[in-house]
Amino acid sequence: MANGKSMTISEMVGMFVSPQAPLRVDAFDGSTFGPESAPLHVKVNNPNAVYQIVEHPNEIGVVRAYILGDFDVEGIDYADPYPVLRSFIDMAPYVRKPTPLDVARVAAAVFSHGFRKAPVPEVEGPSKWQRIKSGLLPHTEKADSETVSYHYDQSNDFYADFLGPSMTYTCAVFENEAMNLEDAQANKLRLILDKLGLKPGQRLLDIGCGWGSMVITAARRGIKALGVTLSKEQAAYAQEWIRREGLEDLAEVRVMDYRDVPERDFDGICSIGMMEHVGVKNYKSYFEEMFKLLKPMGRLLNHQITISHGKPNGKPGTDEFLDRYIFPDGDLGTPGFIESCIHDSGFNVVHQENLRQHYALTLHHWNHNLSEHWDDAVKQVGFDRAKVWGLYMAACALNFELDGIQIHQFLAVKPDRVGHPDGKWYPLRPWWKA
Hints:
- The structure is a single chain.
- With 434 residues, this protein is of the alpha/beta class.
- It has 17 helices and eleven strands.
- Helix 16 packs across helix 17 (383-401).
- The radius of gyration is 24 Å and the shape is elongated.
- Keywords: Lipid metabolism, Methyltransferase, S-adenosyl-L-methionine, Transferase.
C-alpha cells in the first residue's frame, strides 16, 4: 500500500498509538512499528485488514479482519485468545485520539489506491436491519425460532467439545477456584432446585431447557420435569438422554415456544440463560406468562446475564459482533430493571444474587476445553466458526471480569392472597445451602 505519495501501515498505526506502547507491528508493506521485544506482536497480512477497518471502524471491522486472517497475533491460541485480549486492554493508556487532519490523511492514503469492499466471513449472519427487511421482526415466535436455531443447531458434538459431559451452557457455581467444571455445574443445578424447594411428585417447567441437564437432575430427585426449547438438536439430545437414564415417566423435553405450553399450575419454573433471547421490552409480558403458569405459592427461579450499567442512549441490546455472529436479537437489561419487571408482574421477589465472578471462571473452563478439543471442533463446524466461538467466550470472560456484564439469579414467589395464617408459605430466611 505504500508509495511515494502515501503512508506506510506503520505510519498509520503511529497516528493512533503512542511509540511507547508495548506493541510490535509487522506489515505486508515491509514497514514496522515498535520494538521487536514488545510483548504484543501483530502481523498485518494484507490490505484487506485496512479496508475492513476503514469500512467498519468498529468491532465488526476488527472481527472480520481477525476471522479471515487479514491480521494475526503472534502466539495466539484461537480457541482461547483471552491472554491476547488482556494485552490489548493493557494498551489502553497508549491509544491516541487522532486529529481530524490525521483521519483525513489516513483516508486519503487508503483511497489513493482505489478503495475496494472487503470480503465478509461466511459465518457472519445478517444484520438486525437485514433480518427485519426479510420479515423477521425481533422476538416474534418465528424470529425467535430462527435465531435460536442459528445459535444452537450447529452440532451437539461441537458443544460437547467445550461444555464437557454436563452439556450445561450456563454459568456454573464454584465453591472455590479449584473446583472443576463438572462439579461446579452440578452445584449450580443443585442450588437452583434447592431454591425452588421442590419435592418428589411436584412439577417443574424448565423454559429454554438446552440439552436437558436440569430436567434430568430434577427427575433424578423424583420431580416431574418438563423442558421446552426451540432447538431441534437440543431436544433430540435431551430425549435420548432421558431414555438412557430411564426417566421417561418423570422427564419430557419438547420443541415448543414457552408461549405455547398448554399446562398450568406448575409448582416451580426455572428460566436459566433464556432471558437473553426474550428482549428487554418483552420482560414484563414474559414474567406475566410465568405468573399464569405457576400455581399459587409456586416459585420462579430466573438466572440470566445482565448489563452492569444502562446504555448511554437508554436502549437495551447487545453489541454488533454478538448480534451478527452469536446471539441474533440478544438483549440485556440491568438487574434493577429486571427485578422491577418481576415485581410488577405480580411476584414477590424474595432473593437475588450476582454470580459475575462465577461466569468468568466458567468461560475460562470452556475456552480451555475448546483448546483441548480444537481439532474436533474444527471438524464439526469449520475453522472460522470455531475461531469465532473462541473469541466470543474469551471476550465474555474478560467482560465479566471488567464488570461490563454480570449474571443474576432472582427467586420469586407467586403470592396466594388467602394469606395462609398457618404459616404454610416459605421459611423465614433462605433455606438452601449457599
